[in-house]
Amino acid sequence: MNDREGAIEQVIELRLPSRLGYERIAMDTAAALARRMGFPAERIDALRTAIGEAVTNAIEHGNQADAAMKVVVVLMVRPDELIISVADQGRQALDPARTHIQPRITDAFQRADKGGWGIWLMRELMDEVEFTLAPGGGNQVRMVVHLERPST
Amino acid sequence: MQLTIPSILGYEVIARDAVASLAKRFGLAPERIEDIKTALCEACTNAIEHGNHADPQRKVRVVCTIDEQHLIIEVCDEGTDPPVLPKKPVEWPICPYTSFRGRGLMLMAALADEVTVVPDALTGTCVRLIFYRHPTNVVVDVS
Amino acid sequence: MLEDELTVNIRQRDGVAVIDLIGDVTTFAEEKINNAYRQVTARGERFILFNFRQNDYINSAGIAILIGIVTEVNQNGQRLAVSGLSPHFQKIFRMVGLAQYAEIYQTEDEAISAFRRLNTLE
Questions:
Q1: What is this structure's pTM?
Q2: Is the Cβ pair A45, C98 closer than 8 Å?
Q3: Spatial distance between the Cα atoms of B86 and C47, rounded to a whole number of angstroms
């Protein structure tokens, strides 16, 4: 996993069935990769949580928990960053307004639905978050974690 | 579930952790999971080094299917040089000059309940490893 | 076939209802956590401790469940604390605002001591 080995970026792709529980595998895979890249523990935990939310959303909302549909996770290793993209096959398009919610716990106390924290958590934990359309149609979220190297 | 990694040594560890995560989620016993991790590492290393000649542009594909009875793992490379697998039960030779690669393949064959080589849908080679949830008579001849 | 992700235990310790949450806290945890809370509330418990064990996964659905519990704790005049969370999930609790309504302790012992002091004050 060093620059000598060919590509500037190295790509790992994971295809998962749309069943809750499978997000754990994406989380563990990304964490293993982040560990190898030398990310500090705190960033690895943040990444695990963010990717868990992204894949859960893809399973539950994008793919409507249809196990036959796939969630595609692409992990791109670059010298100074890890880029994660999570794509569903787009049964249900993501309302762009939902991607900018700032939930508040005091509001949640008043509502029956206590949720809506997932996307907000992703934005809080990752260095960059961008929602787009997947190449094959479907929702895609692209997240970036920067690898801070100590200056030599 | 399907995972694709570049043919660069070191990435077999990522595949290992992904498959271990799957096995753990599906309630396989810890000792079985250790067997799976080791066998998978050997299969991926073999695919990277020998199947794909460590060409970073080439991919190793790991496909997992899991059900009540087993976990089936296929490790596929883009090479046309399928490995020669030892038959089960694996006989460990006393001779110390067995190649490093040979020992890796023997380990893989010894740990999995079934091992076969299958041709890939595209051009390439797959090693299929099957792990039973509840192994019955697993005979390993360690003479 | 996916493993059942959460086991819940209810114990009594020094006048505190300790609810052990062992494993993952996700959408699948909802019934178990709500049942445990209702059970201890039905017998009039005022002090409740959620003691997390073997936990490395709490997702936003789990957060929503805990916010639901806190809503009822506030309404019922109970006191809720949590222990056993990893530093990462303590941070998440603070970010979300849960820390203002459920005191965070590193260990069960610390939480019990704190409840004891509270009990003598009130």
A1: 0.90
A2: no
A3: 63
Whether CATH 3.40.80.10 fits A10-146? no
pLDDT range class, residue B102, cuts 50, 70, 90: confident
Q: pLDDT tens, C3-21?
A: 668 999 999 999 999 999 9
Number of domains present in the structure of chain B: 1
Residue B142 lies in a domain: no
Structural domain includes residue B138:
no
Query: Is B139 part of any domain?
Result: no
Of A125, A49, A14, A121, the closest CA to residue B3 belongs to: A14
Q: Which domain range does residue B82 map to?
A: 2-132
Asked if the structure places residue B40 within a domain, the reply is: yes
Residue C121 at interface with chain A, using a CB cutoff of 8 Å:
no
Strand order across the beta sheet in which A70-78 lies: A128-133, A139-146, A81-87, A70-78, A10-17, B2-6, B59-66, B70-77, B125-132, B114-119
Interface A–C counts its CB contacts (< 8 A) at 65
- Name the β-bridge partners of A143: A84, A129
The tens digit of pLDDT for each residue in A103-131 reads: 999 999 998 888 889 999 999 999 999 99
Domain ranges of chain C: 7-80+99-104
Cβ–Cβ under 8 Å, residues A134 and A58: no
B30 touches chain C (CB under 8 A): no
CATH number of the domain that residue B64 is part of: 3.30.565.10
- ipTM for the whole complex: 0.88
Q: Is residue B43 within 8 Å of A44, Cβ to Cβ? A: no
Beta carbons of C79 and C69 less than 8 angstroms apart: no
CATH, range C7-80+99-104: 3.30.750.24
**Any idea which residue has 């964490």 for tokens?**
A31
